[in-house]
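Quick start: load a record and inspect it. Here is D-alanine--D-alanine ligase:
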Amino acid sequence: MADKIRVVVLYGGRSGEHEVSLKSAASVLRHLDRARFEVIPVSIDKTGRWQWNDLAAIDPAQPSLPILLDAPEMRLARGTDGRGVLMPVSAGAVGPIEIDVVFPVMHGPLCEDGTVQGLLELAEVAYVGSGVLASAISMDKDVAKRLAEFAGVPVAPYRVLTRKAFAADRPASLARAIEGLSLPVFVKPCNMGSSVGIHKVKTLDALGPALDDAFRYDLKVLVEQGIDAREIEVAVLEGETLFASVASELNPNAQHEFYSYEAKYLDPDGARVDLPARLDAAQMARVRALAVQVFAALECSGLARVDFFLDRQTGEFCFNEINTLPGFTSISMYPKMMEASGVPYRELLTRLVHLALDRHQQRHALDRGYSS
Ligand SMILES: Nc1ncnc2c1ncn2[C@@H]1O[C@H](COP(=O)(O)OP(=O)(O)O)[C@@H](O)[C@H]1O
Ligand SMILES: [Mg+2]
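Running the structure step on this input writes:
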């Protein structure tokens, strides 16, 4: 037992994607290689409480992990030699547990946006995926697009509005919102996910209400040129060099105006997936190269799913968004694309854990101040 790497699978979290995380984590628990790893499930409930969960009591077949009211509450503390320690909040529950690596299997704000990553940095524990910087910029759809564009990757034209400016002068903000754009436009909160707060706006009258709704979720909102687009995704995995999977295509069912929350989670026939995407060889090579370019431009680590639009009119790809902790359920695109590219789920997880340990070791070995 002692020589196994102790992996905390951290799941749940305070975002709107809490339930997706419970499914992703159930799947990760099922696939992590128990011959190599000692696995400790730690849940975060919707109020932000961390709890230790008894692995033996978890049914490996269940599609979604439960949040248990009476599981012992824990907090993360800095350990020694680059290991973190899970400390029980009340004595007698579970002893302190030294940990080697944390695998955050959570999505969205306060999970995937650098906040949890910052906490893990302070505890000096290794963790899977991108660091604070890349997590934060990747969650911000505006900053991510700016950096992608700076690296030469096309993005759809868009405007940014702040809630403050919108409240101060609504008519001026509405005019600025569509300057240089044509209908339809997409209104989206800058830092959300799962299509929450996103509106396809087809008339000028609908713009104000769409912005009102989007500003419920964020202080910054994007108004983006609607594109007649095919939706193409690529999974990127770090290795000796960056590896891009074959691309897949999501075809939202025609009943849905776009790939909305309903199409993603409520309608079992919400979208059809083509894996590999029906692209010609040049298109496939182009989108894989663009995915690697975005991953590098945003300084990501470990893994990311990079989503593109293929404009039906121009035939050009443009970068839409990046997910640094993509869905990991058994039907999620990231593991499926990797599997289709020759990296089976179990091996993928093993590689991610080792990448986390390598990155941590390199950073831990850095000098922290001047030494002659
Ligand atoms: N500019 C756009 N043109 C056409 N469709 C869009 C555009 N922006 C978003 N969409 C549609 O909305 C969906 C969700 O938008 P996205 O930016 O991916 O946000 P989320 O992070 O919530 O997934 C996309 O998958 C697509 O169907
Ligand atoms: Mg999306």
